[in-house]
Amino acid sequence: MDYYQIIADNFQSTIETIAMSVDDLAPCIELGSHLMTQALLEDRKIVACGNGADAALAQLFSSNLLSRFEHERPALPALALGNDGANLTAIAHSSGVNEIFSRQLRALGQAGDVLLCISSSSGANNLLRAVQTAHERNMAVVVLSNVDDSELATLIRSEDVHINIDAPRRPRVVELQTMAIHCLCELIDHGLFGAYNQE
After folding, report:
1. What is the spatial distance between Cα 64 and Cα 188, in angstroms, rounded to a whole number?
2. CA-CA distance, 166 to 145, in Å (whole number)?
3. Across 14-77, where does the E strand assignment appear?
4. Cα separations (Å) of 180 from 31, 112, 118, 146?
5. Coil, strand or helix: which one is 46?
6. Of 23, 31, 78, 177, which is least surrounded by CB within 10 A?
7. pTM for the full model?
């Protein structure tokens, strides 16, 4: 088996997917960053959630805001709902896995907060419930999903932002979602603290 060719094919696929996606994704990423920046300016927070690899992306986003992205600046209020295994398993045991995010949102989410809902697959009822609960709590929603997740797309309101990844394979979806998260973090920093000198 030619491992080099497998690696090269993956790199090439990623490059092609990025090149084909930037025009579609850039306006939505910009809108999402404005929504999040405005919430932070109003002393609100951003709550992120996802399953599996998407939970890791939610953690990536929240850690970039709480700590720093590229430059030193004040900590920004963000949290990922998948961090606490004890809470997740307790809620799943007592209320069911579909409630693991929505129950936390009912306790922690406030009007004016933003939910970042990340989905690289499809059909996750706990994410659907999270978006519904965020709307009930008068939270704005940014959905970072993929074209196969049609159910999640039906919950998007006009005031929400949908960053919809179109990629041939799930690894490409996750790669583009990671890029979108990094762009959101950079644009939030730019919106709050201005441009940094690039070295």
Report:
1. 11
2. 9
3. 46-49
4. 12, 22, 11, 12
5. strand
6. 23
7. 0.93
For residue 106, the one-letter residue type is: R
C-beta pairs of 36-41 under 8 Å, 24+ apart in sequence? 36/114, 36/116, 36/142, 36/184, 36/188, 37/187, 37/188, 37/191, 37/192, 39/112, 39/113, 39/114, 39/140, 40/76, 40/77, 40/188, 40/192, 41/192
Instruction: For residue 39, give both structure tokens.
Output: 């919430």
Give me the amino acid identity at 30.
Answer: E
Give the confidence band of 197 by pLDDT, cuts at 50, 70, 90. Answer: low
Amino acid at 166: D
Phi, psi at 11, each rounded to 5°: -60, -45
- Are 42 and 8 within 8 A, CB to CB? no
